[in-house]
Design brief:
The chain is an alpha+beta fold. It is built from six helices and 18 strands. The longest helix has 14 residues.
């Protein structure tokens, strides 16, 4: 059980500022300061708010003090109204301190992946660490890619907003979820009918998990190379197979990580290039225009 925190454990700095020194808990790296009058301080001690601030003060790399504002109340791991700063190297970024429970979308919201397929947020719960999503770099004004850093879920807010565009597209989100507008990022709750927002028109295809069936194996490669005159005794076939295996391309399965990229190259080659074997040297050649 955490040690009980009492008002007399604080050092009163002035009428509205109290400090809990590092001597209160050996884990604390910096003091905790709370802006409050006596009544507000006693209210804060009625839940786990101050305990959460003490835990935050035990994090590495902190600078100065953990400061708690007058709107203090218990959070998920860091008190609401709490502020902390850390330095590098050795510091951290805490999702709890940032406020990870804001800017929420519902589980039905579809997310576009960098490979061109869409999944709902709730479908990503099991394998989000492997996901790379399509995003928009507002500074460079171009589509970019990003990995997923954290996946967090919480019960639905009592108040949600449904945004519907003139084209009929819609999304459900919390009021503080930002949308990109000509005036910059603006919370959904501040938008008015007729406001313009940025929209990604490309929806991608619905995600279907691929099977583990083999498409191409070593025997297939050897058969094709023998058909164009390659000789295993001279090592050409062995060298080619070894190179494909080293690159993770053999055996090639429907769920191989390289498949999406090979399909893109193949589609581009068929649309703006040629692929085949040179007659004289009998080497595979891919020409793109």
């Amino acid at each position: 059980m955490p040690r009980e925190i009492r008002k007399q454990d604080f050092r009163r700095i002035n009428e509205y500022l109290w400090e809990l020194p590092t001597t209160f808990d050996s884990r604390m790296n910096v003091p905790v300061r709370i802006y409050a009058d006596e009544e507000l301080l006693e209210d804060a001690l009625g839940d786990q708010s101050v305990h959460q601030a003490v835990n935050a003060a035990s994090l590495p790399g902190l600078v100065g003090t953990v400061v708690v504002m007058p709107d203090v109340h218990m959070g998920y791991g860091f008190p609401i109204g709490g502020v902390m700063a850390s330095k590098v190297p050795g510091g951290i970024i805490s999702p709890g301190a940032i406020g990870y429970d804001i800017n929420c979308l519902t589980g039905e919201a579809r997310i576009l992946h960098s490979l061109g397929y869409t999944r709902s947020i709730e479908e990503m719960a099991a394998d989000w660490p492997q996901a790379e999503l399509a995003c928009y770099d507002t500074q460079a004004a171009r589509v970019a890619q990003t990995p997923v850093i954290r996946f967090l879920e919480r019960p639905a807010d009592p108040i949600l907003y449904r945004l519907v565009t003139r084209a009929g597209d819609e999304i459900v989100a919390t009021g503080d979820h930002p949308f990109w507008t000509p005036a910059g990022m603006r919370p959904l709750a501040e938008l008015e009918p007729g406001d313009r927002i940025a929209f990604m028109p490309f929806e991608g295809v619905p995600y279907e998990p691929p099977c583990h069936e083999i498409i191409v194996d070593e025997a297939d490669v050897e058969r094709v190379l023998q058909a164009v005159g390659k000789d295993r005794r001279k090592g050409a076939i062995t060298k080619a197979i070894a190179g494909l295996r080293r690159r993770g391309l053999l055996p090639l399965r429907y769920d191989s990580p390289s498949i999406p990229y090979l399909l893109k190259l193949l589609g581009y080659a068929w649309g703006d290039g040629t692929a085949g074997f040179m007659r004289r040297r009998k080497e595979g050649v891919l020409v793109l225009y």
